Fold:
Amino acid sequence: MRGCSCTRWTAFSPTRAPSTGHFCFGLPVDPADLKQKIGVYQGAYSHILGRAVYEGMAGALPTADHPFTGIMNAARKVVSSRTLRTAEWANTTIAAGDTTEEIDNLRLGGDGHIVIWAALASGGRSCGWT
Amino acid sequence: MRLDLIDEFRLDLHPCVAGEGTRLFDDVPGSYRLDLVLSTEFSNGTVGLHYRRHR
Structure:
């Protein structure tokens, strides 16, 4: 059975990408931190996103010059939403059914981990990304 | 968290106090114990926290 790993991601903005040298709270990015995240994201069987996170990421990341762009474009993505009708980002499906059943569909039948992208609506504001 | 479907958490603790914002966890059970798996200090002062759900 695959494990579900929840990672908190405040917001995404291509203009504040790690390659510019600054990220959340204006802190420089530690390459070791980036390497650790890339390992977790790249090694995931699937990525689960809520609608708000999906729309934020899908609106910027697919064409951005960002270390996660290639990984997330290629990754298997599932948007957990009962309101989203279509998902244009490559390799994305929408899960609108019972939450436990939808998660079990992804967990069962293999090993590895699933990344759940969590975000806070106010996170972007805290980072000055409004 | 309410359905207890999450096995682990990876959180970044930034050395900055926002002073406002949404609660990190909301609508959660009264008791939700976690075990620390790993904490990693990064050069920018951020600490990567890796917790696993206590089962």
